[in-house]
């Protein structure tokens, strides 16, 4: 493993979500990266990876869009060989472009013909495409993570949730298993958390189905949250902006759809790492989640100030008795008979 | 009656449909390797909402049922979870084939419900204009057109995202947008010339 003094250099591809819906992921990563010795050099003027949308419209433009980022990264790399992406969809798209341009050279040729219109070129295989969690587990190492833990997350029951596109299809064999990988579990254990082994940790969050077939998405969201809830998780921890968005922002709509009442907070793994490293919760983006994580955090003694304009706590029913129920009207029948 | 192999000289384009799909797929699709085991459909979290299981869809492609295959909602219901891909004993690139079929259905105007194609198109329009995704513009345009009745229920969530600074009202444009557009235009010409 690496010496603790080593600085690890990477080209960094944040992806669009990190600057908007997943800002908590970005903030918390920035807060812990020095402790981990990560030197992340952002690819200058990167563009969107096209998510799962562009590939469904047109092949060559979709792969040219992705590969512009790799071409820029290779130009700016300055000796670095790895590109790190924290978002699952970005990570897979970048990895896919690099992989398929080699698997099918005709694609590589066409993509480079397109890139030539912008005076760019990318030789597939030049860069390694890595996900942030992979880098933390395999390059930083759990020993170094353990050294930095000053506030173990003792007593916090966490459901690790990886989603799909990081462990699958896994072109370079970086993960322990495509369906039941243990990397996130191991990391959370090192942070002192109680890690829940539940069966759905790499099942789908619904992806873009929240936008095109809501009932399909709500069912997938319900499965995940109810499973974590059955195992008494305090919160779910994820590594994907899309998963966080679907489970957090659409939890309310899912509850309405199924007449359920789940309040399962969904946060990023970098946020709980920051907590364990003793960082200020506010600097880690806590409070940006729509399903409030404060009740879960207060279990381990982490208190966040209440937010202005935040959702008011639900009014408790003051009466101890139940709702008025119809009673067998013994007296009334007598009255009627009279 | 015996089954005759398709002659390479046969001009019926439907008989070449499988080759056409394979050629339009990113990697080596391996679609012809499908052994019809059904592992894909059994692994699929959204198969209940599909017109055809992936297995059946691949049989249809092989049978040259071009129009029926492109009208199927199956590719549009694929959630890109890759469960089928890692379980497929023949290593068929199922998810990528689904992307290919979506693109072909759009070109041939054969999809039945425009919600999903419109969403992809709107997303891509924003990316082509700015170089970055633009969630606020995408959400408003998409919901107004396809889910106007869902909008009132979405207001608390939208406001939550805005007040928590998780959604920008303004789009972000990259510096090299001209370069990106030149690349994409060349890519579209190459795609059209296929």
List keywords for this structure.
heterodimer; A: 338 residues; alpha/beta; Glutathione S-transferase Yfyf (Class Pi), Chain A, domain 2; Rossmann fold; 2 domains; 4-stranded parallel beta sheet; 8 strands; B: 194 residues; mainly alpha; Fumarate Reductase Iron-sulfur Protein, Chain B, domain 2; 55% helix
Give structural notes.
The complex is a heterodimer of chains A (338) and B (194). In chain A, α2 crosses α4 (105-116), α5 crosses α6 and α9 (214-230) crosses α11. The radius of gyration of chain A is 24 Å and the shape is globular. The model of chain A has no long low-confidence stretch (mean pLDDT 91). Chain A contains 14 helices and 8 strands. Chain A folds into 2 domains: 8-131, Glutathione S-transferase Yfyf (Class Pi), Chain A, domain 2 (Up-down Bundle); 149-298, Rossmann fold, CATH 3.40.50. Chain A is of the alpha/beta class. Chain B folds into 2 domains: 13-107, Fumarate Reductase Iron-sulfur Protein, Chain B, domain 2 (Orthogonal Bundle); 115-192, no CATH class. With 194 residues, chain B is mostly helical. Chain B contains 11 helices and no strands. Chains A and B meet through α2, α3, α4, α8 and α9 of A and α5, α6, α7, α8 and α10 of B.
């Amino acid at each position: 493993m690496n010496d603790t003094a080593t600085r690890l250099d990477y080209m960094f591809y944040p992806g669009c979500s990190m600057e908007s819906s997943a800002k908590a992921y970005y903030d918390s990563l920035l807060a812990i990266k020095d402790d981990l010795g990560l030197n992340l050099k952002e690819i200058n003027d990167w563009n969107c990876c096209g998510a799962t949308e562009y590939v469904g419209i047109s092949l060559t433009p979709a792969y040219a869009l992705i590969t512009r980022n790799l071409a820029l990264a290779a130009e700016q790399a300055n000796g670095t060989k790895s590109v790190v992406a924290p978002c699952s969809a970005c990570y897979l798209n970048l990895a896919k472009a690099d992989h398929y341009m080699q698997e099918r050279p005709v694609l590589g040729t066409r993509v480079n013909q397109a890139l030539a219109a912008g005076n760019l070129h990318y030789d597939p295989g030049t860069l390694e495409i890595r996900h942030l969690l992979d880098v933390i587990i395999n390059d930083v190492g759990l020993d170094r993570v353990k050294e930095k833990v000053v506030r173990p997350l003792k007593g916090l029951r966490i459901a690790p949730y990886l989603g799909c596109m990081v462990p699958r299809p896994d072109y370079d064999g970086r993960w322990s298993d495509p369906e039941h990988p243990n990397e996130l579990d191991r990391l959370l254990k090192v942070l002192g958390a109680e890690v829940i082994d539940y069966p759905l940790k790499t099942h789908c969050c619904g992806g873009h189905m929240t936008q095109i077939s809501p009932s399909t998405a709500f069912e997938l969201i319900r499965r995940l949250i109810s499973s974590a809830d059955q195992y008494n998780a305090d919160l779910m921890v994820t590594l994907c902006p899309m998963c966080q968005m679907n489970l957090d922002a659409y939890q309310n709509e899912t509850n309405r759809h199924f007449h359920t009442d789940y309040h399962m907070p969904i946060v990023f793994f970098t946020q709980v790492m920051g907590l364990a490293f003793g960082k200020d919760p506010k600097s880690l983006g806590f409070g940006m989640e729509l399903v409030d994580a404060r009740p879960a955090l207060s279990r381990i003694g982490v208190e966040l100030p209440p937010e202005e304009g935040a959702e008011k706590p639900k009014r408790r029913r003051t009466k101890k008795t139940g709702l008025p129920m119809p009673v067998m009207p013994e007296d009334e029948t007598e009255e009627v008979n009279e | 009656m015996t089954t005759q192999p398709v002659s390479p000289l046969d001009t019926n384009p439907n008989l070449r449909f499988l080759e056409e799909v394979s050629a339009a797929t990113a990697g080596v699709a391996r679609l012809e390797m499908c052994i019809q085991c059904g592992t894909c459909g059994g692994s699929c979290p959204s198969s209940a909402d599909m017109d055809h299981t992936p297995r059946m869809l691949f049989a249809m492609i092989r049978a040259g049922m071009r129009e029926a295959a492109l009208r199927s909602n199956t590719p549009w219901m694929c959630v890109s979870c890759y469960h089928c891909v890692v379980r497929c004993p023949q290593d068929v690139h199922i998810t990528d084939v689904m992307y290919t079929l979506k693109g072909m259905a759009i070109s041939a105007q054969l999809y039945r419900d425009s919600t999903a194609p419109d969403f992809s198109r709107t997303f891509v329009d924003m990316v082509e204009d700015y170089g970055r995704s633009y969630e606020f513009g995408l959400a408003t345009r998409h919901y107004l057109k396809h889910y106007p009745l869902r909008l009132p229920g979405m207001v608390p969530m939208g406001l939550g995202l805005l007040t928590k600074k998780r959604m920008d009202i303004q789009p972000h444009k990259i510096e090299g947008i001209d370069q990106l557009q030149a690349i994409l235009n060349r890519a579209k010409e190459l795609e059209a010339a296929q």
